[in-house]
Amino acid sequence: MLALSFSVLIAAAQSSNNIDKITKDYFGVKNSLVAGKGSDAQNSAKTLLADLSAPGKLSTDQQKVFDGYADKLKFDSRHISETTDVEHQREHFESLSKNLYEVLKGLKMNTSIVYMQYCPMKKAYWLSESSAIKNPYYSDRSMATCGKTTATLAAVK
Known about the structure:
Order of helices and strands: HHHHEEE
Number of helices: 4
């Protein structure tokens, strides 16, 4: 019985780590776009695309949530990974952000706080690991802090 409980805990931790890895990959794309570095965003998106193929062990309900968005997440990640054009990457980043937020909200597996932020100039959302605004839709320093936090996903411990 103890061995079974331990294996269930390990599976849950591995699954959570995979979702955290996907989230970390996304933050890599976001931070590259903040810096206006298309080649870094491209590389982070390649890693994200690969990790989206292995979300880890999910419950039946969680798997339904993930499957409902997986193709959309892969589509945008693939497009970002196929170019170094920051403006084109940002077009796909917008829907990538919305869809990943829905996945994280539905899975309730993130082990750190995730902030949903909004840029009123672009009318676009993004996710952040920090409450500080670092806008991925503008590389211009004068617009770097344009935005506000609109939602917070609490860390699940």
